[in-house]
Amino acid sequence: MKTVAFLTLGCKVNTYESEAMMKLFTLDGYTNVDFKDKADVYVINTCTVTNTGDSKSRQMIRKAIKQNKDAIICVVGCYSQIAKDDILKIDGVSIILGTSRRNEIVECVHEYMQNRKTIVRVDDISSVNEFEDLDVDRYLHNTRAFMKIQDGCNNYCTYCIIPYARGRVRSRKPDSVLQQAQKLVDHGFVEIVLTGIHTAGYGLDFEDYDFYDLLVDLTTKVKGLKRLRISSIEMSQIDHRIIDLIASSPIVVDHLHIPIQSGCNKTLKRMNRHYTTEEFSEKLIELKTKLPTLSVTTDVIVGFPGETDEDFENTYQWIKAMHFNQLHVFPYSPRSGTPAAKMKDQVDGNIKKQRVKRLLDLSHQLQYEFASLQIGKTLEVLIEERHGEYMVGHASNYLKVNVDLDEEAIGHIYKIYIDKQNDVELIGSVISEKIE
Fold this sequence. Notes:
alpha/beta; six-stranded parallel sheet
């Protein structure tokens, strides 16, 4: 029996790409085993968002080598793309692939088995113009199916290395997206989450087809799809067509994750974010007016170089006034190779910790308040797993709901009446059979 073990670091896009590579190994007769077990092939899908991500990637490569010195060690992904020469210095690495040509991984394994010479296939990602069509038609451990629709980013925020690791925006062909979506639904998935490096940048490289067109096609042409979720979207890409579609479609969920990164215009400018808080606020107010049930979550970076106490206070008060429903808070971490890492006035680590804590406390307060507004309402909930006495799932607005059901409910959507809350989570009772 041939065995392969995967270790995936970083984002949901990496998770998708690991699933796609796993499918290629399965088709070649491999059995998937846990990364901590002895395997014939180890695949480390790396992350390079932070210097810590680089370090963790190297650590996991060495761990795989130690577990089986005779194994074929494949290192792929963003860190490989940025630092292939550093990886080559690690004795025992067999194959290095960057953020393209991952569909060749099994072919590389065969080639390596024949001549036992290290294989490096890392392209100049800035010159890659075609989307690499990696297909996933089922997930073993998910009730929601993530579907990658684009790669790359054109924004070049000053703190971010990803455009250098992933290249410019490349979109998956619409027919390929629709075919995969139908396969996922046919395999029992009722919710699809659209994901990418810059998800709503989909179509920037097409002449006459954009993200809105894709949403329309997915919601009208995929038979049996119950829920469509956008993993993340920039406010600049939310136009009136998309707002009207979310408001009118029973399939596109009433939740958007819209990164803000800072609530201070001076900081946004240094980050090279292409909007002001005033522009963001105006669009957010329009969204919430047209979509009263909408839940909006966001990302915030604190302690960006030059962020003063006053700048942070502006961010805090602005976020509070905007009533985001949850914050993902990150202390700024200098990433070598980015403009921000060379900026003056780097913020002290202890100050960053204090600011992170304040925003996390605010996030908890905002989550609690939003959860309390759901009591007495009926929500549609996708049941995902058991937690103690309850089955737990996400409502369309992304709040967690606990309900008394059995394991057979996993993967199905139920209408749940919300009775009460337990901190930021909700507790409800079933008022309908599963929605087919």
